[in-house]
UniProtKB/TrEMBL annotation:
UniProt name for this protein: Hypoxanthine phosphoribosyltransferase
Pfam family, one: Pribosyltran
Superkingdom classification of source: Bacteria
Keyword list, A-Z: Cytoplasm, Glycosyltransferase, Magnesium, Metal-binding, Nucleotide-binding, Purine salvage, Transferase
Pathway: Purine metabolism; IMP biosynthesis via salvage pathway; IMP from hypoxanthine: step 1/1; Purine metabolism; GMP biosynthesis via salvage pathway; GMP from guanine: step 1/1
Organism: Filifactor alocis (strain ATCC 35896 / CCUG 47790 / D40 B5)
Length: 175
């Protein structure tokens, strides 16, 4: 069992930011159909909250990619576990990620979806940890910038636990 070191972002802070991000996305894709691609499993809660605040014709699909497995550190090798069910050619696509850390997964996914000939491709992340970057990737819509701490909650797990926390906390790794 992990020891929660403290709450970084409260439920209220997260929900306020989600609404703000939804309005930015809505403005970017005004009057157009939007295909939202959520990255499983971490972004499922964020995607659900985000799309409820976007007043556009929204289609939703999910992909599952892995560079972590059951480890606490990225292997550096990205694998597609579940691909899209829908065709994104000539579509406006918004990739929704819970957190961008090394950037390897989102960079891989961005190139993968560009190859599928999207009309417009943008990235939205709730959390960004730029200190951990291993490649040059930047989200178009970012909620919060965080220090390089191990975090859990609001969909983000540690070995599949803690996703159900309504807030985001850092883990006390001194134990």
């Amino acid at each position: 069992m992990l020891e929660i070191g403290g709450i970084l972002l409260t439920e209220e802070q997260i929900q306020e930011k989600v609404k703000e991000l939804a309005k930015q996305v809505e403005k970017e894709f005004a009057g157009e159909e939007l295909y939202v691609v959520g990255i499983l499993k971490g972004a499922c809660i964020f995607v659900s909250d985000l799309i409820r605040h976007i007043d556009l014709d929204v289609k939703i699909d999910f992909m599952s990619l892995s560079s972590y497995g059951m480890s606490l550190e990225s292997s550096g090798v990205v694998k597609i576990i579940k691909d899209l069910d829908m065709d994104v050619e000539d579509k406006n696509v918004l990739i929704v990620e819970d957190i961008i850390d090394t950037g390897l997964t989102i960079d891989y996914l961005k190139n993968y979806l560009y190859a599928r000939k999207c009309k417009k491709l943008k990235i939205c992340t709730l959390l960004d940890k730029p200190e951990g970057r291993k490649c040059d990737v930047k989200a178009d819509f970012t909620g919060f910038h965080l220090p390089d701490e191990f975090i859990i909650g609001y969909g983000i797990d540690c070995q599949e636990s803690y996703r159900n926390l309504p807030y985001i906390a850092f883990v006390n790794q001194d134990k």
